[in-house]
Structure formats: C-alpha cells, structure tokens
C-alpha cells in the first residue's frame, strides 16, 4: 500500500439508426441538474440522407469517479484526437486519454467537491492508482508533486463556471475568484483549481490540443 507522500511522488512521474442512411453533425447540447451526483443529459443532432436535421441520440452521461479523488466528478462527454470528418456514422470519437493531443479536443464537465475539514491519513492501494490511470489516463503525468493540483498541459482550455465558485491559481500564488457565469481562457498556462466554499463547483470545459514551442 502507498501512503499520501508516496502518492504525491507517483503523480509526478454505435449509433441507433432510424431506417435509411443517417449522417451526423458534431453538435452536442448539454442540460444539467445539480443534485448529489451531477446529472448530464446529452442531445446529439444529425442529418438523414436528404439533409433533414434529426435528433440522433438523447441520453445521460455518467460521471467518472476515482477513489484517489473523493467527491470529484469527471463527465467525459465528447472528444477526439483527430480532425473530424462530416458526415459521420454517429460513432463517438475515441478519447483514450483525458487530455487531447495536437489538433484533438475534449468537451465535458469537471466537478470539485466543497471544502471539507482535514481528515486523517489516507492510505492508497495499488488498485486505486491503477483505477486512476485507467479512467483518467494521462492526468497523473501532468500533476506536480510539490504543488498539489498544479498542472500544465499543451492545450487551450475554455472553462465556464456553471455553479458554485472556485479559485484559479497561477504562478507566484496569483489567484482569481470565479463564480457562476464567469469564464476563463487557459492558454497552456500552469494552474490549479481550489474550491474553498461550502458548495461544490461545476465547470464546463472544452480542451483543444495545441503545439508548445521551445
């Protein structure tokens, strides 16, 4: 088993067819209900062979949760690591890793739990670490061991606070408080999120892969 200090070091290192040929546009509309567990409804539109617009998919998106991040929820709604072609057969693009590669993209929701009182020492098992890598592949690669939550990715991020409030931390301890309706454009900057309130915070995120030059 691995305790918290060791964990910190480790963190461093088909479409339903309605008859006939259907063509899909890459448009996803999200509606959310803020309950104990974030409930996301995703509606995907498309076109039939004549070009008529249709609702292709209407279903819920379940959150990804991991034992190492209790209270956090990650709704991985849509994403790809290549330029999308239209028309599409409606199959959801592959997004094996949490962050996109150059020219890739991700769209989803990220929920931070409310601030809680300090808890006792947490013991982390190897299976919990494996779960983290399996469900949120690549996230452990970017988290900094000496600064919990701090990370830098080769992406341009479009973040919109849906509910609650959150502090965005940048270099040298610079912080800004964001509330529902506020948005952030993250240009590949080093940052961390901190929820110090008594309510959870939900952020809608779109990540676009970028090229970082030396």
Task: Summarize the structure in short.
With 214 residues, the chain is mostly beta strands.
Largest β sheet strand count, sense and barrel closure: 5 strands, antiparallel
**Which consecutive residue ranges, at least 5 long each, have pLDDT under 50?**
1-35
The global form is globular
Find the structural class using helix and strand composition. Answer: mainly beta
H/I helix tally: 3
* Main sheet strand line-up: 5-6-13-8-11
As a whole number of angstroms, the C-alpha radius of gyration is: 19 Å
Strand content: 35-45%
Secondary-structure element sequence? Answer: EHEEEEEEHHEEEEEE
Number of self-contained structural domains: 1
Distance between the termini: 39 Å
Helix content, binned percent: 10-25%
CATH A-level architecture: Sandwich
Number of strands: 13
Mean pLDDT level? 82
Q: Which homologous superfamily in CATH is the superfamily? A: Jelly Rolls
CATH class: Mainly Beta
Look up the CATH topology: Jelly Rolls
Describe this structure in words.
This protein has 214 residues and is mainly beta. The chain has a single domain, classed as Jelly Rolls (Sandwich), CATH 2.60.120. The chain is 11% helix and 41% strand. A hairpin with a 4-residue loop joins strand 3 and strand 4.
List keywords for this structure.
3-stranded antiparallel sheet, 41% strand, mainly beta, disordered N terminus, Jelly Rolls, 13 strands, 214 residues, 3 helices, 5-stranded antiparallel sheet
